[in-house]
């Protein structure tokens, strides 16, 4: 009998595409702990992205510029609409807002050093302005957030621009979170909170709601800062056309649009993966809004969320952005998720490239922590140099592409330089599928 | 006394003159006439000057005030003295929503009533309201004192941190994690001082104190319904 059984072909064990191992593990984790998963980073699922676009280099119909010989400018000015002192940057890649609290003091210093050396700006974050970052950043954008932690008029006046944060791509409609492990004495004092508590930041500004109020809030900030500095409005990408139009109507100088791949210091995984739209999908509608209002290039558009390479920069600009901002990539350049810490990642139950428990404050690379010993692992001078190099490489890469497309300024890149590899990307970026002159939604086909 | 006609001479001129005053100025007394509900009046001041606004204002009057005393002979719109750092702001009439929002310091006195979300996210400011306050007041209030001589609306002190709330009249309901607390001697002293500075005719003994139960400070699944 037993012999017979052995001869019957068995069905192979089949893993469910719905109940995958990661999903089941998450169900077990939720059942054991009673709390949702909180993590750092951005959406990890695959969504249509810049990788799904390609550039059409020059050939017979267009001629290219000579690499290294013919100029291809990279400068950008942000805040030309109302500010007396717009921000002038050498490169169109800025450092996105990341809070002191989420990041260590040395990490903030390194961001300032690297960005300044590359001729670009850094941004504060939830938790206020630290002397380290003000001191080491030639151009510092001061975030004005719902929590208003550490917010004060003296720092506001020290800023080179003000960014009103309405939302973030990782969590549009959500507030912030900084868990007790990271609330050190200094962080607690800056935020006027008891040490060691789980600190929640509000999802909405405490003293305004809606675009009409926002207009008055912008007026107040301008009055307090003598109309000197640009005022940005940052939104998480959800309804990019209307949000851009309303920000312009409210008087923004710059709109910052952050797609769903955008990183966060700590947010519920369910939020990161399921709320918001991909970066690729938000650029054309935002640009369309600016064009419809006749302010494209007068109100600048900064795009963020998953920008990694000079190709990404060039693609975002070709779709109509004026500049981009990077968060996660800047942290990686500093040393985040570096394989040299693999044995320590293993001890934390993770591996290089996957480490995202930034909220726990145990970062082996010493970046997303308030632990003095771990933080001391990051040399801000060395890390700043790495960031500078990386920013330079991105710029060179973007220039290489722009020259190949025949442009003498990165801002001359245009949608006509692009085609898409997939139907989804073609629809979102509104550029033709490769080898065709068609994209979904285009009239006349 | 310097007089500035807001209607005739404009907001920018007024704020830049007032912001230009320093500690050494001998022009310490200013009067703003014809405010007519304008927004952002006397914002970002940073000198020990006295500004009297003769009439009612719109949003964010005396926003981010430092050192100055701003007295509104009228009522104010939303966000009066928002993020105030120091100084004194006195409102003779009523205040709209978010009075004293996120204020870090100084004293805000409202002689009439204040609407909803009074003292939202306050971070060290003292607020004394002679009348009543609306719902969701002191939401996520972190530090400072909110004194209410009248009644408080629904959900007082929801998700409160370390701010102290004192109410003389009734409280329609308390928000999540806000509880009545024992009134100790030190609290009576704080109250007596604030009531006197705010010119409020009330006795500290008539008040009840409310504060954070501190149950939501660290996440606990058994409290999930309160989040
Ligand atoms: C560690 C970390 C902290 C952040 N803190 C803030 C913050 O305080 N305020 C904010 O508006 N965005 C914050 N962000 C989001 C970034 O500003 C930016 O939108 C995002 O990182 C861009 O996407 P990228 O990470 O893919 O480059 C944070 C991101 C990270 C990775």
Ligands in the model, by name, code or SMILES, are:
flavin mononucleotide
| Count of separate DSSP helical elements of chain A | 16
CATH architecture of chain A: Alpha-Beta Barrel
Structural class of chain B: alpha/beta
Whole-number radius of gyration of chain A?
23 Å
Supply the CATH superfamily name of chain A.
Aldolase class I
Question: What is the number of strand segments of chain B?
Answer: 11
Characterise this structure:
The complex is a heterodimer of chains A (445) and B (227). Chain A is an alpha/beta fold. Chain A has one domain: TIM Barrel (Alpha-Beta Barrel). Helices cover 35% and strands 12% of the residues of chain A. Chain A has helices at residues 2-7, 21-33, 105-118, 131-136, 153-158, 185-191, 210-224, 240-250, 269-274, 279-292, 310-318, 328-334, 342-347, 372-375, 380-404, 423-429; strands at 38-39, 53-55, 76-78, 87-89, 93-95, 122-123, 140-144, 161-165, 177-178, 199-200, 231-236, 254-258, 267-268, 300-304, 323-326, 418-420. In chain A, the strands form five sheets. Chain A has an eight-stranded parallel beta sheet. The longest helix of chain A has 25 residues, at 380-404. In chain A, 56% of the residues are buried. The mean pLDDT of chain A is 95. Chain B folds into two domains: 1-76, no CATH class; 97-227, no CATH class. Chain B is elongated, with a radius of gyration of 18 Å. With 227 residues, chain B is an alpha/beta fold. The model of chain B has no long low-confidence stretch (mean pLDDT 96). Chain B contains three helices and eleven strands, in the order βααβββββββββαβ. Chain B has helices at residues 6-9, 11-20, 185-197, and strands spanning 2-5, 29-33, 50-54, 69-72, 88-91, 107-110, 123-129, 143-148, 164-167, 178-181, 208-212. Helix content of chain B is 12%, strand content 23%. The interface between A and B is large, with 32 and 43 residues. The site of flavin mononucleotide (FMN) has 31 residues of chain A, from helix 12. Chain A: Its EC number is 1.4.1.13. Chain A: Residues 113-124 have a biased composition (Low complexity). Chain A: Residues 81-335, 359-408 form the Glutamate synthase domain. Chain A: It is an enzyme of class 1 (oxidoreductase). Chain A: Belongs to the glutamate synthase family. Chain B: One of its GO terms (molecular function) is oxidoreductase activity.
């Amino acid at each position: 009998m037993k012999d017979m059984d052995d001869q019957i072909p068995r069905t192979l064990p089949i893993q469910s595409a719905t109940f995958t191992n990661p999903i089941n593990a998450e169900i077990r984790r939720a059942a054991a702990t009673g709390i949702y998963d909180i993590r750092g980073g951005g959406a990890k699922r695959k969504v249509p992205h810049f990788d799904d676009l390609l550039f059409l280099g020059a050939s017979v119909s267009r001629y290219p510029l000579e690499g290294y010989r013919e100029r291809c400018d990279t400068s950008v000015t942000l805040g030309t609409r109302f500010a007396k002192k717009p921000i002038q940057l050498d490169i169109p890649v800025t450092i996105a807002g990341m809070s002191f609290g989420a990041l260590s003091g040395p990490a903030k210093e390194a961001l300032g050093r690297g960005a300044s050396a590359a001729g670009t700006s850094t941004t504060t974050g939830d938790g206020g302005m630290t002397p380290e970052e003000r001191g080491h950043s030639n151009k510092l954008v001061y975030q004005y957030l719902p929590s208003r932690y550490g917010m004060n008029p003296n720092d506001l006046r020290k800023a080179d621009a003000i960014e009103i944060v309405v939302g973030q791509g990782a969590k549009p409609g959500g507030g912030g979170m900084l868990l007790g492990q990271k609330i050190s004495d200094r962080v607690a004092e800056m935020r006027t909170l008891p040490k060691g508590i789980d600190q929640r930041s509000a999802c909405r500004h405490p003293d305004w709601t809606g675009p009409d109020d926002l207009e008055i809030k912008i007026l107040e900030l301008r009055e307090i800062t003598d109309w000197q500095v640009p005022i940005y409005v940052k939104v998480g990408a959800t309804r990019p056309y209307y949000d851009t139009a309303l920000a312009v109507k409210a008087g923004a100088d710059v709109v910052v649009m952050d797609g769903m791949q955008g990183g966060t210091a700590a947010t519920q995984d369910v939020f990161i993966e399921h709320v918001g739209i991909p970066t690729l999908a938000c650029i054309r509608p935002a640009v369309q809004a600016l064009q419809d209002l006749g302010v494209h290039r007068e109100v600048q558009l900064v795009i963020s969320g998953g920008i990694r390479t000079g190709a990404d920069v060039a693609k975002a600009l070709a779709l109509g952005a004026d500049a981009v901002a990077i968060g996660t990539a800047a942290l990686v350049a500093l040393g985040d998720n570096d394989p040299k810490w693999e044995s320590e990642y293993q001890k934390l139950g993770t591996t290089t490239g996957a480490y995202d428990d930034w909220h726990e404050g145990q970062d082996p690379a010493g970046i997303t922590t308030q632990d003095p010993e771990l933080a001391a692992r990051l040399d801000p001078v060395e890390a700043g140099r790495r960031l500078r190099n990386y920013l330079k490489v991105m710029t060179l890469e973007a220039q290489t592409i722009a020259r190949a497309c025949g442009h003498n300024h990165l801002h001359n890149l245009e949608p006509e330089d692009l085609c898409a590899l997939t139907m989804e990307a073609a629809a979102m970026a509104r550029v033709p599928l490769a080898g065709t002159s068609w994209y979904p939604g285009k009239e006349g086909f | 006394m310097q007089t500035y006609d807001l209607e005739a001479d404009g907001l920018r001129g007024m704020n830049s003159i007032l912001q230009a005053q320093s500690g050494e100025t001998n022009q310490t007394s200013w009067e703003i006439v014809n405010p007519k509900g304008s927004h952002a009046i006397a914002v970002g001041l940073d000198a020990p000057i006295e500004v009297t606004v003769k009439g009612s204002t719109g949003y964010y009057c005396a926003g981010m005030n430092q050192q100055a005393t701003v007295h509104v002979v009228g009522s104010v719109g939303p966000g009066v003295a928002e993020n105030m750092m120091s100084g004194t702001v006195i409102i003779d009439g009523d205040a709209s929503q978010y009075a004293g929002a996120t204020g870090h310091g100084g004293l805000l006195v409202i002689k009439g009533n204040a609407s909803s979300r009074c003292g939202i996210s306050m971070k060290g400011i003292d607020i004394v309201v002679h009348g009543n306050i609306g719902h969701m007041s002191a939401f996520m209030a972190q530090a400072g004192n909110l004194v209410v001589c009248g009644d408080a609306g629904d959900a007082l002190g929801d998700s409160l941190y370390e701010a102290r709330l004192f109410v003389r009249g009734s409280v329609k309901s308390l928000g999540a994690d806000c509880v009545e607390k024992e009134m100790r001697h030190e609290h009576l002293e704080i109250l007596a001082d604030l009531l006197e500075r705010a010119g409020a005719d009330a006795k500290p003994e008539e008040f009840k104190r409310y504060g954070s139960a501190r149950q939501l400070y660290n996440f606990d699944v058994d409290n999930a319904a309160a989040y």
